[in-house]
Amino acid sequence: MKHNLARRMAVGAVAAGAVTGLIVMVPGTAFAASPSTSTTTGSSTTTGSAGNAGTSASQPTCSPTRFSQAQQLVEAALAGRVTQLNALSSAVGNTANHLTTGDRQTLQNDITTVELPGIQALQTQAQQDTTCPQLRATAHTMVFTYRVYVVMTPQTHLTIVVDDETYVEGVFTNLEPQIATAIQNAQNAGKNVTAAEAAFNDLKNQVTAAQGATNGQSAVLLAQAPAGYPGNWQVFLAARTNVTNAHSDLRAAYTDAQAIRADLQ
Amino acid sequence: MATRKLATAALFTGIAVALTACGAGSASHVVAQLPTTALSTTTTTVAVPGSVASSVPVTTPVAGTPTTSPSAALNPQTLDQVAADLGALDNSLSTANSDLNNPQGDS
Fold first, then answer.
1. What is the number of structural domains in chain A?
2. Of B68, A186, B19, A251, whose CA–CA distance to A194 is shortest?
3. For every one of its 107 residues, what pLDDT tens digit does chain B have, with 9 covering 90 and above?
4. Which of A190, A197, A201, B56 is the most exposed place for a label (fewest CB within 10 A)?
5. Are residues A23 and A42 in the same domain?
6. Domain range for A99
């Protein structure tokens, strides 16, 4: 797997350093799933996180003299998450996609009644924080409780892909009898339909394969929660593989339709 | 015989347009290319009884499509929509890939 968890943790640790490394300041465990091992103190010094230990010195973070700077950093991170959640909500609400009614409702509910209010509450909290321990607690909650970027985002986008693919699979399935009729008519008219039949068989196989790849995926994706990170990252990667395969299958099915058309013309 | 061939041709005209639109990858283009002439091709070439001895081409439009024609059951707009959906799928899959390839930290 290209993006194995260890690599992701390392990359993520560096990328997230601006907020979690500097502000949450959980030495050695900044990016662990469980915050229980936190050794956060009011000190202005810290050590490297698990992901980049030994490769880069962590930087001094919240201190009384730098509190305002740290607070602004947390507020910016929270604002970014609000923007992201609004974007996710728009994507879910976009009726141009083919999210099922249930999936659309589940996602919209998570985003607008859990995540968004939670992050917005933290925005207020961050403004009210006056000490580094308070600010760290706010930043910690922002990351560990809501997982906007590494759970909510892939969960939402992958579910849209799955449901879109499922919809297209259904359209192809509905078209199959009609294509069969066209081939039969051509054959009755004396046309050699050998190639068309072969393409049609492949079309059906491709659609079946796509159905196999997407079956049950939306339920798996929607079952993932922020608390399940980083373990559920593998779930997202597996889902990505499945939807990518289904996508290829559906494209192939369309190519088959093209071949059938050419053969029967 | 000719009627069936023409009907089949009309059927796959819709598919051809849909596939072409699919290559464009744009839903708006797909809608703009709806093959409104597909059915008229069928109807204007249906043989008219009694015209065998005549050398005048049949140009009188025939209302409706023969119920036995495959094109009667295949809605070209449906195929166009499949093309549009596949194009949209490209985009949404790309977005999902981006999420996983370039996550914003472990947050």
1. 2
2. A186
3. 455 555 555 555 544 444 443 333 333 333 333 333 333 333 333 333 433 333 434 343 344 333 334 443 345 666 677 788 899 999 999 999 999 998 876 67
4. B56
5. yes
6. 5-144
A122: helix, coil or strand?
helix
pLDDT at B4: 58
| Closest in A149, A157, A168 to B82, CB measured | A168
pTM of the predicted model as reported, rounded to 2 decimal places = 0.70
Do A212 and A190 share a structural domain?
Answer: yes
- Determine whether the interchain pair B86/A168 forms a contact, defined as Cβ–Cβ distance below 8 Å: yes
Together in a domain, A152 and A201: yes
Domain end marker among A94, A129, A144: A144
Q: Which two tokens stand for residue A156?
A: 């939402």
- Tell me how close the Cα of A182 comes to any Cα of chain B, in angstroms: 6
> How many H-runs (helices) and E-runs (strands) does chain B carry?
5, 0
**ipTM for this model:** 0.74
**Are A193 and A169 found together in one domain?**
yes
Write the residue in B12, B89, B104 that is nearest to A247 by C-beta.
B89
Please identify, among A144, A173, A207, the residue that sits at the C-terminal boundary of a domain.
A144
CA nearest A168: which of B70, B33, B93? B93
A173 in contact with B at a CB cutoff of 8 Å? no
Give me the count of residues in chain A.
265
By CB atoms closer than 10 A (0-12, 13-18, 19+), residue B57 is exposed
Is A76 found in the same domain as A55?
yes
Domain boundaries, chain B: 1-40
Q: Which residues of A touch B105 (CB under 8 A)?
A: 12-13, 15-17, 19-20, 149-150
pLDDT in tens, A90-119: 999 999 999 999 999 999 999 999 999 999
